[in-house]
Design brief:
Layout lengths: L1 E4 L2 E4 L2 E4 L6 H24 L5 H12 L5 H7 L4 H13 L3 E5 L5 E5 L1 H22 L4 H18 L4
Antiparallel strand pairs: 1-2, 2-3, 4-5
Length: 160
């Protein structure tokens, strides 16, 4: 819900000063700053449970798609195939992931019990970090933000 008065608009409980169109570079930077804060906080806190953001994200992707190939997991974690392959090798060396032969040349990825424990600890960290980050937004604002970002994602696919 928006209520406008002159150059001031209220979106929910948030007051937004409007001096014309939103500068898209400023908007893009604000999104990037939020992501950067999340990544820094997650990386710092995940180190305390023995993992990194990239490793936890890979474990999460494997848990969501047990038996997935490295290529599928690279796409799910926004990495290149070679980067994900290197990461998966490190996770296997740490006994967090098992890599098993699949059909043809496919290598399937599965979490070990140790990997599941690290994933659970990382999930707890993520809930705390993201909960604190999104605390200033009420549930309706969070739902609106999510819907807007998802709508951009659908359109954003056409940009490549």
């Amino acid at each position: 819900m928006t209520v406008e008065q002159g150059n001031v608009e209220r979106v929910g409980r948030v007051r937004v000063d409007r001096e014309g169109p939103v500068d898209l570079e400023v908007l893009g930077r604000a999104v990037k700053e939020a992501q950067y804060r999340h990544h820094r906080a997650l990386d710092t806190r995940l180190a305390k449970v023995g993992t990194t953001l990239a490793q936890w994200d890979a474990l999460r992707a494997i848990a969501r798609s047990p038996g997935a190939s490295a290529h599928e997991l690279a796409l799910a974690t926004f990495q290149g195939d070679q980067s994900f392959g290197t990461l998966a090798s490190r996770l296997a060396a740490q006994h967090l992931v098992e890599r098993r032969p699949g059909r043809g040349r496919r290598i399937e990825h599965h979490l070990t019990e140790a990997g599941e424990r690290i994933l659970e600890a990382g999930d707890e960290v993520a809930r705390e970090v993201l909960g604190a980050s999104f605390a200033p937004l009420d549930e309706e604002e969070r739902a609106t933000l999510l819907a807007l970002l998802r709508r951009m994602g659908v359109r954003g696919d056409a940009l490549s």
